[in-house]
TrEMBL record:
InterPro entries: 4Fe4S_Fe-S-bd (IPR017896), 4Fe4S_Fe_S_CS (IPR017900), QueG (IPR004453), QueG_DUF1730 (IPR013542). The gene is queG. Residues 182-210 form the 4Fe-4S ferredoxin-type domain. [4Fe-4S] cluster 2 binds at C200, C216, C243, C246. Its cofactor is cob(II)alamin; [4Fe-4S] cluster. This is Epoxyqueuosine reductase. Monomer. Its EC number is 1.17.99.6. It is found in: Cytoplasm. Catalyzes the conversion of epoxyqueuosine (oQ) to queuosine (Q), which is a hypermodified base found in the wobble positions of tRNA(Asp), tRNA(Asn), tRNA(His) and tRNA(Tyr). Binds 2 [4Fe-4S] clusters per monomer. GO terms for biological process: tRNA queuosine(34) biosynthetic process.
Amino acid sequence: MNLSELANNIKLWGKELGFDQVGITDIDLKAHESYLKNWLDKGYHGDMDWMARHGMMRARPEELLPGTLRVISARMDYLPPEAQFASNLKDTHSGYISRYALGRDYHKLVRNQLKKLAQKIEQEVDALGYRPFVDSAPILERPLAEKAGLGWVGKHSLLLNKDSGSWFFLGELLIDLALPIDHAGVDNECGHCVACMTSCPTQAIVDDKVVDSRRCISYLTIEYDGVIPEELRQAIGNRIYGCDDCQLVCPWNREAEVTQHTDFHRRSEFNNADLLTLFAWTEQEFLDRMQGSAIRRIGHTQWLRNIAIAIGNAPYDDKYIPALTARLGISTTLDEHLNWAIKQQQVAAAQTPNLDRKKQRLIRIVEKGLPRDA
């Protein structure tokens, strides 16, 4: 068997399956173990206890699949057309959703294509042990992708590629076949630029390639289901699911190409939907509308929590306080954010010039918890 020819074919097959780049690397991540341990020791993983529980396994792919000799790392671009970055962030009456989550959930899609790639390899060899991963196991995907020549890890800790910036998903295929490896050969092109670090709304990038998840808006709105610290709420703005700020300011993202995968295009539900519209969804409407979306896994209550914070940060609107008040009582965690948002809207109302008496009276009625026709 010609392993070099097989390695070249794997990259061709990867392109045919929709991957934008494929690389092959060994499993040696020893150089990253001290960094990982230090990151965990400082508690930067927040409430993601599984990260600490798996410990150094993240840097040891062979513990995930005994006999692993190589990792095939693949990227799939996801930047949708008409991304509407500026308009969504500037219109504070609408909710900003991280661009990766506007379309179909990538986990199953990328994993299925990795499995198909493995099956193609399997047809060429006598036997193949393999296992695909897409955010589904403790593995250091970015260092592996860097070793495989897919790019370099930027100061925001994301992988950067000269052609696609950081707008892509990563997936890994662990195999027990000793294929020739790709040498990284990709220089770190960040230089002295610190735009991602200085632009983070919550200052979550605490050092070069080091993110404190406990301050990261993506972590807070997606992974964390508790009470978001009050001192971070205003900085969240209208970001109701994830955050792209560190990517938006990155010079390497200015010329990134739009994805060819229609699965990652914007859902119709997110076409100029304002906060009130999204906040009004019942739990069943949320589940139905978010079918096949990564957003579905956070659940309806957390969805409401995130939108409540955005409403609290929005300019005054006489529809907000009644909408927030109507959601009280679902959970104590949600109530904490609803009451905060109500107070924020009350402050905004007091600062709104020429607010007519009818609206002022409505605010006082809601504050007292009286029926609206009192």
